[in-house]
Amino acid sequence: MKANIHPVYRTVVFHDTSANEYFKVGSTIKTDRTIELEGSTFPYITIEISSASHPYYTGKQKEYSKEGSTARFNQRFGSFLNKTK
């Protein structure tokens, strides 16, 4: 391999600000910010969403059969549609 062409791979702390969770992950991302975590200093990146706060992973995603335009349609026309079958 050629010298000095590859990015530095290191452990980086990602902070999910919406869930206040910290993740230590190997990454090549560049940052000037640092944080002390578990007695060591790591590069630090803030993120707005992760597996700790994303609705898909937390199970808090919307069910369209109970909410939104589909539910309004079924509420208005559901009894009419059921009678015609």
Automatic annotation (TrEMBL):
Gene3D superfamilies: Ribosomal protein L31. It holds the Pfam family Ribosomal_L31. Belongs to the bacterial ribosomal protein bL31 family. Type B subfamily. InterPro entries: Ribosomal_bL28/bL31-like_sf, Ribosomal_bL31, Ribosomal_bL31_B, Ribosomal_bL31_sf. This is Large ribosomal subunit protein bL31B. Keywords: Ribonucleoprotein, Ribosomal protein. One of its GO terms (cellular component) is ribosome. The lineage of its organism: Bacteria, Pseudomonadati, Pseudomonadota, Gammaproteobacteria, Enterobacterales. It comes from the Bacteria. The keyword Ribosomal protein applies. NCBIfam families: L31, PRK01678.1. Part of the 50S ribosomal subunit.
